[in-house]
Structure prediction request, 151 residues.
Amino acid sequence: MSDPVQWLPHVVVAAIVVRDGRYLFVEEHTPEGLRLNQPAGHWERGETLIEAVRREALEETAHHVEPTALIGCYTTYYPGKDITYLRFAYVCDVTGFEAGRPLDHGIVRALWLAPEELARHPTPHRSPLVMRCVNDHLAGRRFPLDFVRHA
Prediction:
């Protein structure tokens, strides 16, 4: 067993964006192949989680978003990489779009899918949390933004 003092999870944020019953996703290249995910990525030093989710959504989809609520905090473990991810998923509204903006390296495209389209899409999900966050959103799960406080 590894030394618990040395263990650190990878903290990521995810934007759960819905418009007209369709959710915003990215199709991206990963080491495991092409995958579907919410706009998501690593929390960077010096930013709040809310700033991180705004940045990630813009970089991956060219959409400006504004978080309105926290859906939840999730963990998932990848034994092959010995990595645990701690994911903060935020409900976000679209506040703008930059047509022609280049997307992050590895992002093939942004797309809007209804939950049933996501469930049967031929591209595998990046993690089990992709559908879990959609289902939690559909179930009305919401926490106020100040649930997570930065000192």
Summary: The chain is about 20% helix and 45% strand. The helical segments are 49-61, 115-120, 129-138.
